[in-house]
C-alpha cells in the first residue's frame, strides 16, 4: 500500500481549481477524507479517473440541514473518501457516472433512498425503488418512518422502462423474479435473435429489505448480526468489515487471537463458496460428476466449520471486539488433517476439469469479459482476476493478520468462464495454505476486547476481502452510542454490470453457467 | 474418462443413513418421508422453492439437500422449476415488499392441494429484518402457511425433518 498518490492527487485538484480540504477522520484511517464543494463533485471524478483511481463505492447520508454524499476511491491500495454536502432544500449535484460506469447504479440507489439528484446522470430511471414507496418519499431520510407509508398490498413493479430491441427476428425473454432453480430473485430481460443474446438488462432490487434503514438505532452487537445477513454466503466477510468499521470508530482493538480466528473463518468461507460454485458451474454444463464431487467436499468442509465454531456458515461468530467462538486443539488438528486430504482430492479433481474436452467446449471462450472493460467497470474478486484486474484487499491494502502473510492472488487474462473457474480453483488452494499458516501461528490469549461506544458522530470504515472480492462497510455513531448510519457495499455492485456485458453474443442456454461464474449476490446488492 | 470412473469407484457412496449425524430418529425420518410421499403424492413430492427476500443463507442449505450426503431425491422429494408442477412451496423470507406480488402470484399458480412451508427465522417471524417499509416480515403475513422450519439458517437435517412434519400433518388431516 502506498499513499503517495493522495498528495499528488490533491495538488492536481488544486491545479484544476477544485478546492479540496483534507479533514481529520481517525475512524476512516488508513483511508483519508477530503471534502469538496458539491458543484465540483463531477470534476472531482473526472480528475480521479485521469489519475487512474478505482471507484470503490458511493453512499449518502441525511445530515439534517444538509444531505451528505460520499464516494470512495482506491489506488495503489490506499483509499480516499471524498465528501460533499448538498442543501436539503435543493439536493442536486453532478454525477460520477459519466466518468465511472461503476457509479451508475449506486447513484441511482442514493437518489431512490435519499432524494439526492445527480443532475447529469446518464440514466434517469429508478433502481432500488419498485412500488413499496413513492417517488417523492426517501426511506433513508430521518423523517421517513421505518414502517413506511405503504398501501395494504405492494403492487407489482410494472412500467420499468427496459431497453427495447427491434428488427426482424428479434424477440424478448423475460426471466424472473422467481427463477427456475433454487436461486435468489431478480429479473433478467433478454433480447435475442435465434439463440444469440443481443442484449441483457438486469432489474434488481427485489430482495430490498431496508438493511440501511433498520441498521439505525442498533447497538454494535446488533449491527454485527445484521451485517452477517447482508449476504448469507458472505456472512463472515461482511460481519468482519462491519466490525472493523465499528472498532475503528470506537478505538477498540480486537486481540491477536481474535484476528487470527476471523481470518480462519473468512478463509473457510472462501473455500466453501468456491467449492460449491465450481460444482454448480459443472452442473450448469451437465457435468454432474463435478457437481456431486465438489458438493461432497463442500459438505465435509461445512460440517467441520460447524464442529469447530458451532455454525455451518460461522454466522454471528464475528462480533464487535473479537469473535464469539474459540478454536480448541482437536478442531485445529481436524482442520489440518482435512486440508491435507482436501488438497490431495482437489489435485485429482482439478486435473480432471482441466483436460475434459466437454468442459473445454462449454467453458472456454464462454462469457468473455475483456480486461479493458473489467478495469473500466472496476470488477472485483474472481471476475476481475480472470480479466487481468489483480486487486485483492488482503494483499494490496493488507489488514491484520494478512499484513504478515503471503497472499497469492492468481490473475488471468482470458476473461472467460474457464478463467473464472481457474481463479477460484487457485484461490481455494491458496486459502488452504493460508489456513495452515494461520493455524500454525494462531496466538494464544483472549478472543475479545471489551466494547465501548464512541462519541457522537464517530465514523469508521472497514474493508475485507470476501470470496467475491472487496467488501466495504461504513458506520457512523449517534449521540447514544448507537448506529446512525450503516452502509455495506458488497462486491456484487461491481460485478453485476459485468454480467450484462459478458453475456452478449453468447447463446441463451449458456446464461446459467455465465451467471454462476459471476455469482452476484442479489441480497448483498439489493440491501 | 477412466480417471472419472476411478474417482467414482474410490469415493463410493457417501450418502448417509441419516441417524449417524445427529438424531437417532432420522433413519426413520427418511423412511417416513418416503412412506408419506408414496401415500400422499404418488411417490413423488415436487417442491418449488421461492426466495421471497432471504439473505441466501437458507438457499445454501436447501441446495445441500441435493448433495450426496443428504440426497433427498432418494425419498421421492425433488425440486421443480415451476409452481405449476409443485405440491409444496418452500418459502424463505422475510417477504420483501418488492417480492410480495411475485409470491402471491406464485402461490396462486400452484395447483391445489398445496402445502406451504415457511423456512428460516425470517420466514417464520421476520428474523433480523422484521416488518418495515421494505419487509412484510413472516411468510404468513402474505400467504397461508402450513408449517414452519426455524433456524438461521435451518440445517439440511432441520429441513428434512420439517418437510416430513409438514407432510405428516397433511396425512393426518
Automatic annotation (TrEMBL), chain A:
Presence of the UniProt keyword Repressor in the record: no
Name of this chain's protein: Hydrogenase
PANTHER family, A to Z: FORMATE HYDROGENLYASE SUBUNIT 5-RELATED, HYDROGENASE-4 COMPONENT G
NADH:ubiquinone oxidoreductase 30kDa subunit domain sequence ranges: 35-149
Binding-site list for Mg(2+): 212
Gene Ontology terms for molecular function: NAD binding; NADH dehydrogenase (ubiquinone) activity; nickel cation binding; oxidoreductase activity, acting on NAD(P)H; quinone binding
Superkingdom of this protein's organism: Bacteria
Domain (NADH-quinone oxidoreductase subunit D): residue spans on this chain: 288-449
Keyword Lipid metabolism (UniProt): no
Alphabetical keyword list: Magnesium, Metal-binding, NAD, Oxidoreductase
From TrEMBL, chain B:
Listed InterPro entries: Complex_I_20kDa-like, NADH_UbQ_OxRdtase-like_20kDa
Domain (NADH:ubiquinone oxidoreductase-like 20kDa subunit): residue spans on this chain: 55-165
UniProt keyword terms in alphabetical order: 4Fe-4S, Iron, Iron-sulfur, Metal-binding
A Pfam entry, by short name: Oxidored_q6
Keyword Metal-binding part of the UniProt annotation: yes
GO molecular function, one term: 4 iron, 4 sulfur cluster binding
Regions annotated as coiled coil: none
Cofactor(s) of this protein: [4Fe-4S] cluster
Stated family: Belongs to the complex I 20 kDa subunit family.
The protein, known as: Hydrogenase
Native organism: Candidatus Muproteobacteria bacterium RIFCSPHIGHO2_01_FULL_65_16
Amino acid at each position: 500500500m502506498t499513499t503517495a498518490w493522495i498528495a499528488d492527487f490533491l495538488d492536481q485538484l488544486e491545479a484544476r481549481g477544485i478546492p479540496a480540504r483534507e479533514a481529520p477522520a481517525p475512524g476512516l484511517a488508513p483511508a483519508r477524507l477530503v471534502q469538496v464543494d458539491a458543484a465540483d463533485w463531477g470534476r472531482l471524478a473526472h480528475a480521479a479517473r485521469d489519475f487512474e483511481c478505482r471507484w470503490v463505492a458511493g453512499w449518502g447520508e441525511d445530515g439534517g440541514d444538509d444531505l451528505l454524499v460520499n464516494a470512495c476511491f482506491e489506488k495503489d491500495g490506499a483509499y480516499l473518501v471524498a465528501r460533499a454536502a448538498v442543501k436539503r432544500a435543493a439536493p442536486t449535484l453532478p454525477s460520477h457516472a459519466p466518468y465511472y460506469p461503476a457509479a451508475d447504479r449506486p447513484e441511482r440507489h442514493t437518489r431512490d433512498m435519499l432524494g439526492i439528484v445527480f443532475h447529469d446522470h446518464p440514466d434517469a430511471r429508478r433502481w432500488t425503488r419498485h412500488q413499496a414507496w413513492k417517488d417523492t418519499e426517501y426511506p433513508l431520510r430521518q423523517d421517513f418512518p421505518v414502517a413506511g407509508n405503504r398501501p395494504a398490498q405492494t403492487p407489482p413493479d410494472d412500467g420499468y422502462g427496459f431497453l427495447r430491441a427491434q428488427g426482424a427476428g428479434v424477440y424478448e425473454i423475460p426471466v424472473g423474479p422467481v427463477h427456475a432453480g433454487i436461486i435468489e430473485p431478480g429479473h433478467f430481460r433478454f433480447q435475442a435473435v435465434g439463440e444469440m443474446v443481443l442484449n441483457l438488462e438486469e432489474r434488481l432490487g427485489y430482495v430490498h429489505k431496508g438493511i440501511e434503514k433498520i441498521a439505525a438505532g442498533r447497538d454494535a452487537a446488533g449491527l454485527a448480526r445484521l451485517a452477517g445477513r447482508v449476504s448469507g454466503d458472505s456472512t463472515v466477510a461482511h460481519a468482519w468489515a462491519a466490525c472493523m468499521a465499528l472498532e475503528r470508530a470506537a478505538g477498540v482493538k480486537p486481540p491477536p487471537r481474535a484476528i487470527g480466528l476471523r481470518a480462519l473463518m473468512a478463509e473457510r468461507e472462501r473455500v466453501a463458496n468456491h467449492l460449491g460454485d465450481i460444482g454448480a458451474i459443472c452442473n450448469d454444463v451437465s457435468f454432474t460428476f463435478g457437481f456431486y464431487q465438489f458438493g461432497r467436499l463442500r459438505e465435509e468442509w461445512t460440517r467441520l466449520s460447524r464442529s469447530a465454531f458451532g455454525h455451518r456458515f460461522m454466522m454471528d461468530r464475528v462480533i464487535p471486539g473479537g469473535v464469539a467462538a474459540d478454536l480448541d486443539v482437536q478442531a485445529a488438528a481436524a482442520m489440518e488433517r482435512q486440508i491435507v486430504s482436501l488438497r490431495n482430492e482437489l489435485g485429482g479433481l482439478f486435473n480432471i476439469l482441466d483436460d475434459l474436452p466437454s468442459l473445454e467446449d462449454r467453458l472456454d471462450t464462454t462469457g468473455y469479459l475483456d480486461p479493458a472493460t473489467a478495469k473500466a467497470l472496476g470488477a472485483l474478486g474472481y471476475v476481475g482476476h480472470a480479466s487481468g484486474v489483480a486487486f485483492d484487499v488482503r494483499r494490496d491494502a493488507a489488514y491484520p493478520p494478512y499484513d504478515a502473510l503471503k497472499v497469492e492472488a492468481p490473475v488471468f487474462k482470458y476473461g472467460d468462464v474457464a478463467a473464472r473457474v481457474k481463479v477460484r480453483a487457485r484461490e481455494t488452494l491458496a486459502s488452504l495454505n493460508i489456513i495452515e499458516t494461520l493455524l500454525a501461528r494462531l496466538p494464544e490469549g483472549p478472543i475479545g476486547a471489551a466494547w465501548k461506544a464512541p462519541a457522537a458522530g464517530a465514523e469508521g470504515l472497514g474493508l475485507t476481502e470476501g470470496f467475491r472480492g472487496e467488501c466495504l462497510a461504513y458506520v457512523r455513531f449517534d449521540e447514544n452510542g448507537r448506529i446512525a448510519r450503516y452502509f455495506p457495499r458488497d462486491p456484487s455492485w461491481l460485478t453485476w454490470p459485468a454480467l450484462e456485458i459478458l453475456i452478449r453474443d453468447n447463446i441463451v442456454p449458456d446464461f446459467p453457467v455465465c451467471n454462476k461464474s459471476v455469482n452476484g449476490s442479489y441480497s448483498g446488492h439489493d440491501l | 474418462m477412466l480417471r472419472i470412473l476411478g474417482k467414482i469407484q474410490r469415493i463410493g457412496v457417501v450418502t448417509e443413513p441419516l441417524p449417524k449425524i445427529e438424531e437417532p430418529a432420522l433413519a426413520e425420518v427418511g423412511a417416513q418421508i418416503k412412506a408419506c410421499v408414496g401415500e400422499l403424492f404418488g411417490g413423488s413430492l415436487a417442491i418449488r422453492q421461492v426466495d421471497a427476500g432471504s439473505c441466501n443463507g437458507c438457499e445454501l442449505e436447501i441446495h445441500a439437500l441435493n448433495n450426496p450426503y443428504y440426497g433427498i431425491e432418494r425419498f421421492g422429494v425433488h425440486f421443480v422449476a415451476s409452481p405449476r408442477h409443485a405440491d409444496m412451496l418452500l418459502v424463505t423470507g422475510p417477504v420483501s415488499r418488492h417480492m410480495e406480488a411475485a409470491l402471491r402470484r406464485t402461490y396462486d399458480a400452484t395447483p391445489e392441494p398445496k402445502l406451504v412451508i415457511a423456512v428460516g427465522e425470517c420466514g417464520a417471524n421476520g428474523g433480523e429484518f422484521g416488518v418495515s417499509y421494505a419487509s412484510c416480515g413472516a411468510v404468513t403475513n402474505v400467504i397461508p402457511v402450513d408449517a414452519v422450519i426455524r433456524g438461521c439458517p435451518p440445517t439440511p437435517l432441520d429441513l428434512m425433518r420439517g418437510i416430513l412434519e409438514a407432510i405428516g400433518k397433511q396425512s393426518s388431516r
